[in-house]
Amino acid sequence: MANKQYKIVVPKVGSNNVNGTDAKLYKLDEIVDATEAWQEEIMNTFVANGWAMETKVEATADVEQAEPVRARNDKGHYKKDDPNTPDINEAYKGGKAPKATKRTTKKKTKAKA
């Protein structure tokens, strides 16, 4: 069973174990990780009553790096891009360079005398 996460939107008391012999207060904005069937059953009841909502969990391995990082050689110097491989940029880890930004220049104005 895949782990599902739920966010509590209305504080409510619910079961804290598989037998239902222990209770706990699920607090506002608490994230509940439903790792077992009984936890998922309780959270489905919370969702049906509007007390919680299921949140999306993304795997961190699938997420790309936010900023490209320059690749370095054994001495710590930057690597250069190989022009023979146009689809891969060896100068950056992961083979992708950052998107180019458009530079803006300020126009010079003549001073009035």
Lay out the secondary structure.
Layout: E1 4-8, E2 12-15, E3 23-26, E4 31-34, H1 37-48, E5 52-55
Antiparallel strand pairs: 1-4, 1-5, 2-3
Description:
This protein has a domain of 52 residues. Helix content is 11%, strand content 19%. The chain is built from one helix and five strands. The strands form two sheets. The protein has a three-stranded antiparallel sheet with strand order 4-1-5, with helices on one face.
Radius of gyration: 27 Å
Structural class computed from helices and strand pairing: alpha+beta
Strand order of the largest sheet: 4-1-5
Count of separate DSSP helical elements: 1
Rounded mean pLDDT is 84
The largest β sheet comes out as:
3 strands, antiparallel
Share of β-strand residues: 15-25%
Annotation keywords:
113 residues; 5 strands; two-stranded antiparallel sheet; three-stranded antiparallel β-sheet; alpha+beta
